[in-house]
Protein backbone atom coordinates (compact mmCIF):
# COMPACT_ATOMS: atom_id res chain seq x y z
CA UNK A 1 0.00 0.00 0.00
CA UNK A 2 1.16 3.48 -0.88
CA UNK A 3 1.95 5.86 2.00
CA UNK A 4 1.41 9.59 1.90
CA UNK A 5 4.72 11.19 2.71
CA UNK A 6 4.32 14.77 3.97
CA UNK A 7 7.95 15.62 3.30
CA UNK A 8 8.36 14.34 -0.23
CA UNK A 9 7.79 16.19 -3.46
CA UNK A 10 5.26 13.65 -4.61
CA UNK A 11 2.49 14.73 -6.99
CA UNK A 12 -0.82 12.92 -6.80
CA UNK A 13 -2.85 12.22 -9.89
CA UNK A 14 -5.86 10.23 -8.88
CA UNK A 15 -7.47 12.06 -5.99
CA UNK A 16 -10.60 9.91 -5.90
CA UNK A 17 -8.45 6.84 -5.41
CA UNK A 18 -6.45 8.55 -2.69
CA UNK A 19 -9.69 9.43 -0.95
CA UNK A 20 -10.95 5.86 -1.03
CA UNK A 21 -7.67 4.37 0.03
CA UNK A 22 -7.37 6.51 3.13
CA UNK A 23 -11.01 6.81 4.07
CA UNK A 24 -11.21 10.53 3.34
CA UNK A 25 -14.78 11.74 2.73
CA UNK A 26 -15.77 13.49 -0.45
CA UNK A 27 -16.28 17.23 0.09
CA UNK A 28 -19.80 18.11 -0.96
CA UNK A 29 -20.86 20.95 1.30
CA UNK A 30 -22.63 23.92 -0.13
CA UNK A 31 -21.11 26.78 1.83
CA UNK A 32 -22.44 30.33 1.85
CA UNK A 33 -20.25 32.90 0.05
CA UNK A 34 -17.34 30.50 -0.29
CA UNK A 35 -14.46 31.11 -2.71
CA UNK A 36 -14.56 29.17 -6.01
CA UNK A 37 -12.08 26.44 -4.97
CA UNK A 38 -14.74 25.06 -2.62
CA UNK A 39 -17.07 24.26 -5.47
CA UNK A 40 -14.57 23.38 -8.20
CA UNK A 41 -13.30 20.12 -6.79
CA UNK A 42 -10.01 21.69 -5.68
CA UNK A 43 -11.00 21.03 -2.10
CA UNK A 44 -11.89 17.45 -2.80
CA UNK A 45 -12.01 15.75 0.58
CA UNK A 46 -12.48 16.15 4.29
CA UNK A 47 -12.55 14.49 7.65
CA UNK A 48 -15.18 15.53 10.16
CA UNK A 49 -16.25 18.71 8.38
CA UNK A 50 -19.86 18.22 9.58
CA UNK A 51 -18.97 20.04 12.79
CA UNK A 52 -17.69 23.05 10.90
CA UNK A 53 -20.64 23.12 8.56
CA UNK A 54 -22.93 23.11 11.56
CA UNK A 55 -21.01 25.92 13.24
CA UNK A 56 -21.12 28.05 10.11
CA UNK A 57 -24.82 27.50 9.51
CA UNK A 58 -25.77 28.03 13.16
CA UNK A 59 -23.30 30.89 13.58
CA UNK A 60 -21.69 29.07 16.49
CA UNK A 61 -18.15 29.41 17.73
CA UNK A 62 -15.38 27.63 15.82
CA UNK A 63 -11.72 28.14 15.16
CA UNK A 64 -9.27 27.65 12.32
CA UNK A 65 -5.72 26.52 12.67
CA UNK A 66 -3.12 25.83 10.07
CA UNK A 67 0.63 25.95 9.78
CA UNK A 68 3.26 26.75 7.21
CA UNK A 69 6.91 25.90 7.13
CA UNK A 70 9.06 29.00 7.02
CA UNK A 71 11.29 27.84 4.23
CA UNK A 72 11.93 29.66 1.00
CA UNK A 73 9.34 31.95 -0.50
CA UNK A 74 5.60 31.96 -0.37
CA UNK A 75 3.96 30.93 -3.64
CA UNK A 76 0.49 30.46 -5.12
CA UNK A 77 0.20 26.97 -3.67
CA UNK A 78 0.49 28.47 -0.18
CA UNK A 79 -1.92 31.24 -1.08
CA UNK A 80 -4.66 28.65 -1.45
CA UNK A 81 -4.42 27.75 2.24
CA UNK A 82 -4.62 31.36 3.36
CA UNK A 83 -7.58 32.02 1.05
CA UNK A 84 -9.45 29.33 2.96
CA UNK A 85 -8.42 30.67 6.34
CA UNK A 86 -9.66 34.12 5.31
CA UNK A 87 -13.00 32.64 4.30
CA UNK A 88 -13.49 30.94 7.67
CA UNK A 89 -12.51 34.16 9.39
CA UNK A 90 -15.23 35.98 7.48
CA UNK A 91 -17.63 33.29 8.69
CA UNK A 92 -16.72 34.11 12.29
CA UNK A 93 -13.83 31.78 13.12
CA UNK A 94 -10.91 32.82 15.29
CA UNK A 95 -7.61 32.28 13.48
CA UNK A 96 -4.32 30.73 14.61
CA UNK A 97 -1.40 30.09 12.29
CA UNK A 98 1.66 28.13 13.29
CA UNK A 99 5.09 29.02 12.04
CA UNK A 100 6.38 25.46 11.76
CA UNK A 101 9.91 26.34 12.82
CA UNK A 102 10.51 23.08 14.71
CA UNK A 103 9.50 21.13 11.63
CA UNK A 104 11.67 23.29 9.36
CA UNK A 105 14.58 22.76 11.72
CA UNK A 106 13.93 19.02 11.90
CA UNK A 107 13.31 18.26 8.26
CA UNK A 108 15.22 20.99 6.41
CA UNK A 109 17.94 22.03 8.84
CA UNK A 110 16.73 25.65 8.98
CA UNK A 111 17.81 27.40 12.18
CA UNK A 112 15.21 28.96 14.45
CA UNK A 113 16.71 32.42 13.86
CA UNK A 114 16.50 32.02 10.12
CA UNK A 115 12.95 30.67 10.40
CA UNK A 116 11.94 33.69 12.42
CA UNK A 117 13.37 36.07 9.85
CA UNK A 118 11.66 34.26 6.97
CA UNK A 119 8.33 34.19 8.80
CA UNK A 120 8.36 37.87 9.73
CA UNK A 121 9.63 39.22 6.44
CA UNK A 122 8.27 36.81 3.89
CA UNK A 123 5.15 35.06 5.20
CA UNK A 124 3.31 37.19 7.73
CA UNK A 125 2.99 40.35 5.58
CA UNK A 126 1.53 38.18 2.83
CA UNK A 127 -0.99 36.59 5.21
CA UNK A 128 -2.31 40.02 6.05
CA UNK A 129 -2.23 41.25 2.47
CA UNK A 130 -4.19 38.15 1.42
CA UNK A 131 -7.02 39.37 3.58
CA UNK A 132 -6.53 38.08 7.11
CA UNK A 133 -7.81 40.65 9.56
CA UNK A 134 -4.84 41.80 11.66
CA UNK A 135 -7.11 42.38 14.64
CA UNK A 136 -8.39 38.81 14.68
CA UNK A 137 -5.43 36.72 13.61
CA UNK A 138 -2.58 35.27 15.60
CA UNK A 139 0.61 33.83 14.24
CA UNK A 140 2.81 31.95 16.69
CA UNK A 141 6.02 29.93 16.61
CA UNK A 142 6.01 26.22 17.47
CA UNK A 143 9.32 26.54 19.28
CA UNK A 144 8.05 29.26 21.60
CA UNK A 145 4.69 27.88 22.62
CA UNK A 146 4.92 25.65 25.66
CA UNK A 147 1.37 24.32 25.35
CA UNK A 148 2.20 22.90 21.93
CA UNK A 149 5.25 21.10 23.23
CA UNK A 150 3.41 19.86 26.34
CA UNK A 151 0.70 18.24 24.26
CA UNK A 152 3.37 16.66 22.08
CA UNK A 153 5.01 14.75 24.91
CA UNK A 154 1.93 14.19 27.06
CA UNK A 155 -0.58 12.85 24.60
CA UNK A 156 1.92 10.69 22.78
CA UNK A 157 1.93 8.28 25.67
CA UNK A 158 -0.86 6.61 23.76
CA UNK A 159 1.11 6.30 20.52
CA UNK A 160 3.80 3.74 19.92
CA UNK A 161 6.75 3.42 17.61
CA UNK A 162 5.39 0.71 15.32
CA UNK A 163 2.45 2.90 14.58
CA UNK A 164 4.73 5.75 13.66
CA UNK A 165 6.74 3.56 11.37
CA UNK A 166 3.55 2.36 9.71
CA UNK A 167 2.17 5.85 9.19
CA UNK A 168 5.32 7.62 8.03
CA UNK A 169 7.66 4.92 6.87
CA UNK A 170 10.55 6.49 8.80
CA UNK A 171 13.80 4.62 8.44
CA UNK A 172 16.60 3.92 10.88
CA UNK A 173 18.43 7.00 9.56
CA UNK A 174 15.65 9.51 10.27
CA UNK A 175 16.73 11.99 12.92
CA UNK A 176 14.79 12.01 16.16
CA UNK A 177 13.61 15.63 15.96
CA UNK A 178 12.08 14.79 12.62
CA UNK A 179 10.40 11.72 14.08
CA UNK A 180 9.07 13.88 16.90
CA UNK A 181 7.78 16.68 14.62
CA UNK A 182 4.37 15.13 13.79
CA UNK A 183 3.65 15.17 17.52
CA UNK A 184 4.46 18.88 17.57
CA UNK A 185 1.89 19.27 14.82
CA UNK A 186 -0.62 17.38 16.97
CA UNK A 187 0.17 20.00 19.62
CA UNK A 188 -0.47 22.80 17.13
CA UNK A 189 -3.81 21.41 16.16
CA UNK A 190 -5.10 20.65 19.66
CA UNK A 191 -3.70 23.37 21.91
CA UNK A 192 -6.07 26.00 20.55
CA UNK A 193 -8.84 24.17 22.39
CA UNK A 194 -7.28 25.04 25.73
CA UNK A 195 -9.15 27.70 27.65
CA UNK A 196 -6.41 30.26 27.08
CA UNK A 197 -6.79 30.02 23.30
CA UNK A 198 -10.56 29.93 23.02
CA UNK A 199 -11.68 26.74 24.76
CA UNK A 200 -13.18 23.48 23.55
CA UNK A 201 -14.79 24.03 20.16
CA UNK A 202 -14.74 22.67 16.62
CA UNK A 203 -11.51 23.44 14.77
CA UNK A 204 -10.96 23.32 11.04
CA UNK A 205 -7.52 22.60 9.63
CA UNK A 206 -7.30 23.44 5.92
CA UNK A 207 -4.33 21.66 4.36
CA UNK A 208 -2.94 20.01 1.26
CA UNK A 209 -3.66 16.31 1.11
CA UNK A 210 -0.02 15.52 1.87
CA UNK A 211 -0.82 16.48 5.48
CA UNK A 212 -3.43 13.76 5.92
CA UNK A 213 -1.16 11.42 7.91
CA UNK A 214 -0.86 14.10 10.60
CA UNK A 215 -4.61 14.58 10.68
CA UNK A 216 -5.24 10.86 11.02
CA UNK A 217 -2.72 10.71 13.82
CA UNK A 218 -4.27 13.68 15.64
CA UNK A 219 -7.80 12.39 15.34
CA UNK A 220 -6.74 8.94 16.54
CA UNK A 221 -5.00 10.42 19.55
CA UNK A 222 -8.08 12.47 20.43
CA UNK A 223 -10.15 9.33 20.22
CA UNK A 224 -7.83 7.35 22.48
CA UNK A 225 -8.02 9.91 25.26
CA UNK A 226 -11.79 10.19 25.20
CA UNK A 227 -13.67 8.57 28.11
CA UNK A 228 -17.10 8.81 26.55
CA UNK A 229 -17.85 7.35 23.18
CA UNK A 230 -21.03 7.26 21.13
CA UNK A 231 -22.28 4.70 18.71
CA UNK A 232 -25.53 4.35 16.81
CA UNK A 233 -27.78 1.51 17.98
CA UNK A 234 -30.86 -0.16 16.51
CA UNK A 235 -32.80 2.10 18.79
CA UNK A 236 -31.26 5.51 19.28
CA UNK A 237 -27.69 6.37 20.24
CA UNK A 238 -25.55 4.51 22.75
CA UNK A 239 -23.25 6.45 25.06
CA UNK A 240 -20.40 4.45 26.59
CA UNK A 241 -18.07 5.41 29.39
CA UNK A 242 -14.74 3.81 30.16
CA UNK A 243 -13.53 5.44 33.42
CA UNK A 244 -14.23 5.21 37.15
CA UNK A 245 -17.56 6.06 38.82
CA UNK A 246 -19.63 4.71 35.99
CA UNK A 247 -23.00 5.29 37.56
CA UNK A 248 -22.28 8.84 38.61
CA UNK A 249 -20.87 9.83 35.25
CA UNK A 250 -23.70 8.30 33.25
CA UNK A 251 -26.30 9.91 35.50
CA UNK A 252 -24.63 13.24 34.98
CA UNK A 253 -24.62 12.63 31.24
CA UNK A 254 -28.32 11.86 31.34
CA UNK A 255 -28.99 15.03 33.26
CA UNK A 256 -27.11 17.18 30.75
CA UNK A 257 -28.74 15.48 27.80
CA UNK A 258 -32.14 16.10 29.36
CA UNK A 259 -31.32 19.78 29.48
CA UNK A 260 -30.74 19.60 25.75
CA UNK A 261 -34.22 18.18 25.22
CA UNK A 262 -33.77 14.40 25.11
CA UNK A 263 -36.35 12.53 27.13
CA UNK A 264 -36.15 8.76 26.73
CA UNK A 265 -33.22 6.92 28.27
CA UNK A 266 -32.19 3.46 29.27
CA UNK A 267 -29.26 2.89 31.60
CA UNK A 268 -27.18 -0.29 31.67
CA UNK A 269 -24.46 -0.04 34.31
CA UNK A 270 -22.72 -3.42 33.74
CA UNK A 271 -22.42 -2.44 30.04
CA UNK A 272 -21.31 1.04 31.12
CA UNK A 273 -23.89 2.33 28.74
CA UNK A 274 -26.61 4.93 28.51
CA UNK A 275 -29.00 4.62 25.59
CA UNK A 276 -30.75 7.70 24.28
CA UNK A 277 -33.82 6.24 22.67
CA UNK A 278 -35.19 9.43 21.20
CA UNK A 279 -31.96 10.39 19.43
CA UNK A 280 -30.89 9.42 15.94
CA UNK A 281 -27.76 9.69 13.83
CA UNK A 282 -28.59 13.30 13.08
CA UNK A 283 -28.18 14.06 16.80
CA UNK A 284 -24.62 12.79 16.90
CA UNK A 285 -22.89 16.18 16.98
CA UNK A 286 -25.27 17.60 19.53
CA UNK A 287 -24.81 14.61 21.82
CA UNK A 288 -21.06 14.55 21.37
CA UNK A 289 -20.65 18.23 22.15
CA UNK A 290 -22.74 17.75 25.29
CA UNK A 291 -20.50 14.88 26.39
CA UNK A 292 -17.36 16.85 25.65
CA UNK A 293 -18.51 19.66 27.90
CA UNK A 294 -19.19 17.09 30.63
CA UNK A 295 -15.87 15.34 30.11
CA UNK A 296 -14.06 18.65 30.35
CA UNK A 297 -14.95 18.69 34.06
CA UNK A 298 -12.65 15.76 34.84
CA UNK A 299 -10.53 14.91 31.77
CA UNK A 300 -7.89 17.54 30.87
CA UNK A 301 -7.14 15.68 27.63
CA UNK A 302 -10.56 15.86 26.05
CA UNK A 303 -10.82 17.62 22.69
CA UNK A 304 -13.21 17.97 19.81
CA UNK A 305 -11.88 15.83 16.98
CA UNK A 306 -10.30 18.40 14.64
CA UNK A 307 -11.83 18.61 11.17
CA UNK A 308 -9.70 18.79 8.06
CA UNK A 309 -10.24 19.69 4.44
CA UNK A 310 -7.83 18.61 1.75
CA UNK A 311 -7.00 20.54 -1.37
CA UNK A 312 -5.20 19.31 -4.41
CA UNK A 313 -1.57 20.27 -4.58
CA UNK A 314 -0.85 22.75 -7.34
CA UNK A 315 1.10 21.51 -10.27
CA UNK A 316 4.28 23.44 -10.94
CA UNK A 317 4.33 25.54 -14.09
CA UNK A 318 7.11 23.28 -15.35
CA UNK A 319 5.00 20.16 -14.83
CA UNK A 320 6.23 18.63 -11.56
CA UNK A 321 5.35 19.82 -8.09
CA UNK A 322 5.11 23.52 -7.38
CA UNK A 323 8.10 24.09 -5.17
CA UNK A 324 10.11 26.99 -3.83
CA UNK A 325 13.28 25.17 -4.71
CA UNK A 326 12.45 25.26 -8.44
CA UNK A 327 11.82 28.99 -9.07
CA UNK A 328 10.39 28.51 -12.58
CA UNK A 329 7.82 26.06 -11.23
CA UNK A 330 6.15 28.54 -8.93
CA UNK A 331 4.74 32.02 -8.99
CA UNK A 332 5.92 33.68 -5.83
CA UNK A 333 3.76 36.27 -4.18
CA UNK A 334 6.70 38.65 -4.34
CA UNK A 335 7.50 38.08 -8.01
CA UNK A 336 7.33 41.24 -10.05
CA UNK A 337 4.57 41.21 -12.66
CA UNK A 338 7.28 40.85 -15.32
CA UNK A 339 8.86 37.82 -13.67
CA UNK A 340 5.46 36.20 -13.25
CA UNK A 341 4.46 36.87 -16.84
CA UNK A 342 7.65 35.31 -18.06
CA UNK A 343 6.94 32.14 -16.06
CA UNK A 344 3.45 32.04 -17.53
CA UNK A 345 4.83 32.36 -21.05
CA UNK A 346 7.12 29.38 -20.44
CA UNK A 347 4.55 27.25 -18.62
CA UNK A 348 3.59 23.77 -19.64
CA UNK A 349 0.11 23.66 -21.16
CA UNK A 350 -2.22 20.96 -22.33
CA UNK A 351 -1.97 22.23 -25.87
CA UNK A 352 -0.96 20.25 -28.93
CA UNK A 353 2.38 20.45 -30.67
CA UNK A 354 1.12 22.70 -33.44
CA UNK A 355 -1.71 25.13 -33.84
CA UNK A 356 -3.05 22.98 -36.62
CA UNK A 357 -3.30 19.93 -34.37
CA UNK A 358 -4.82 22.08 -31.67
CA UNK A 359 -7.59 23.14 -34.06
CA UNK A 360 -8.13 19.55 -35.09
CA UNK A 361 -8.03 17.66 -31.76
CA UNK A 362 -8.54 20.40 -29.19
CA UNK A 363 -6.39 20.97 -26.10
CA UNK A 364 -6.37 19.16 -22.76
CA UNK A 365 -7.24 21.60 -20.00
CA UNK A 366 -6.97 18.78 -17.41
CA UNK A 367 -3.26 18.65 -18.08
CA UNK A 368 -2.71 22.38 -18.36
CA UNK A 369 -0.98 24.45 -15.68
CA UNK A 370 -2.43 27.67 -17.11
CA UNK A 371 -5.93 26.29 -16.82
CA UNK A 372 -5.11 25.30 -13.26
CA UNK A 373 -4.15 28.89 -12.50
CA UNK A 374 -7.54 30.02 -13.82
CA UNK A 375 -9.40 27.43 -11.75
CA UNK A 376 -7.50 27.95 -8.51
CA UNK A 377 -6.84 31.65 -8.55
CA UNK A 378 -7.52 33.87 -11.49
CA UNK A 379 -11.06 33.35 -12.74
CA UNK A 380 -13.84 34.07 -10.30
CA UNK A 381 -16.70 33.69 -12.76
CA UNK A 382 -17.78 30.09 -13.36
CA UNK A 383 -19.36 30.74 -16.73
CA UNK A 384 -16.19 32.33 -18.05
CA UNK A 385 -14.21 29.36 -16.78
CA UNK A 386 -16.54 26.99 -18.57
CA UNK A 387 -16.13 29.03 -21.72
CA UNK A 388 -12.33 28.63 -21.50
CA UNK A 389 -12.67 24.91 -20.91
CA UNK A 390 -14.99 24.32 -23.80
CA UNK A 391 -13.20 26.48 -26.30
CA UNK A 392 -9.96 24.70 -25.38
CA UNK A 393 -11.49 21.26 -25.85
CA UNK A 394 -13.06 22.19 -29.15
CA UNK A 395 -9.82 23.58 -30.48
CA UNK A 396 -11.05 27.13 -30.87
CA UNK A 397 -8.68 28.45 -28.26
CA UNK A 398 -4.96 28.75 -28.77
CA UNK A 399 -2.55 28.50 -25.86
CA UNK A 400 -1.03 31.84 -26.78
CA UNK A 401 -4.37 33.47 -26.17
CA UNK A 402 -4.75 31.79 -22.78
CA UNK A 403 -1.26 32.70 -21.69
CA UNK A 404 -1.87 36.29 -22.59
CA UNK A 405 -5.06 36.35 -20.58
CA UNK A 406 -3.40 34.63 -17.61
CA UNK A 407 -0.41 36.97 -17.73
CA UNK A 408 -2.63 40.01 -17.72
CA UNK A 409 -4.80 38.85 -14.84
CA UNK A 410 -1.78 37.78 -12.87
CA UNK A 411 0.06 41.03 -13.51
CA UNK A 412 -2.87 43.08 -12.31
CA UNK A 413 -3.34 40.92 -9.29
CA UNK A 414 0.31 41.11 -8.28
CA UNK A 415 0.48 44.85 -8.68
CA UNK A 416 -2.44 45.38 -6.39
CA UNK A 417 -1.21 42.73 -3.98
CA UNK A 418 2.22 44.34 -3.65
CA UNK A 419 0.61 47.58 -2.62
CA UNK A 420 -1.40 45.83 0.05
CA UNK A 421 1.70 43.98 1.14
CA UNK A 422 3.54 47.25 1.79
CA UNK A 423 0.63 48.44 3.89
CA UNK A 424 0.50 45.08 5.70
CA UNK A 425 4.07 45.32 6.99
CA UNK A 426 2.96 47.75 9.68
CA UNK A 427 0.62 45.15 11.12
CA UNK A 428 3.05 42.28 11.51
CA UNK A 429 3.61 43.18 15.14
CA UNK A 430 -0.14 43.05 15.80
CA UNK A 431 -0.53 39.47 14.68
CA UNK A 432 2.63 37.81 16.01
CA UNK A 433 2.45 36.18 19.45
CA UNK A 434 5.82 35.59 21.01
CA UNK A 435 4.74 32.81 23.33
N1 LIG B 1 3.47 20.30 8.27
C1 LIG B 1 2.94 21.47 7.62
C2 LIG B 1 3.68 21.68 6.30
O1 LIG B 1 4.64 21.03 6.01
C3 LIG B 1 3.04 22.70 8.47
C4 LIG B 1 2.27 22.62 9.76
C5 LIG B 1 2.78 22.68 11.01
C6 LIG B 1 0.86 22.51 9.93
N2 LIG B 1 1.82 22.63 11.96
C7 LIG B 1 0.63 22.53 11.34
C8 LIG B 1 -0.21 22.39 9.06
C9 LIG B 1 -0.65 22.42 11.86
C10 LIG B 1 -1.49 22.29 9.58
C11 LIG B 1 -1.71 22.30 10.99
O2 LIG B 1 3.29 22.51 5.52
FE1 LIG C 1 -4.35 25.34 -21.56
FE2 LIG C 1 -5.56 27.34 -22.76
FE3 LIG C 1 -3.85 25.82 -24.10
FE4 LIG C 1 -6.21 24.89 -23.39
S1 LIG C 1 -5.81 26.54 -24.77
S2 LIG C 1 -4.26 23.84 -23.19
S3 LIG C 1 -6.50 25.87 -21.40
S4 LIG C 1 -3.37 27.13 -22.37
Walkthrough of the structure:
The protein folds into three domains: 15-224 and 304-313, HUPs (Rossmann fold); 228-295; 327-424, Tyrosyl-Transfer RNA Synthetase (Orthogonal Bundle). The radius of gyration is 24 Å and the shape is globular. The strands form two sheets. The protein has a seven-stranded mixed sheet with strand order 1-2-11-6-3-4-5, with helices on both faces. With 435 residues, it is an alpha/beta fold. Helices cover 46% and strands 12% of the residues. The two termini are 41 Å apart. Helix 4 runs antiparallel to helix 8 (176-191), helix 10 crosses helix 11 and helix 12 packs antiparallel against helix 16. Bound molecules: tryptophan and iron/sulfur cluster. The site of iron/sulfur cluster (SF4) has 13 residues, from helix 14, helix 15 and helix 16. Residues 6, 65-69, 98, 100, 103, 185, 188-189, 205, 207, 211 line the site of tryptophan (TRP).
Fill in the keyword field for this structure.
435 residues; alpha/beta; Rossmann fold; Tyrosyl-Transfer RNA Synthetase; 17 helices; 11 strands; binds tryptophan; binds iron/sulfur cluster
Short description:
The longest helix is centred in the last third of the chain and has 26 residues, at 399-424.
Mean pLDDT: 96
* Unreliable stretches: none
List the total number of helices: 17
Q: Which structural category fits the helices and strands? A: alpha/beta
CATH class of the largest domain: Alpha Beta
Question: Topology as H/E string?
Answer: HEEHEHEHHEHHHEHEEHEEHEHHHHHH
Query: Any idea what the radius of gyration is?
Result: 24 Å
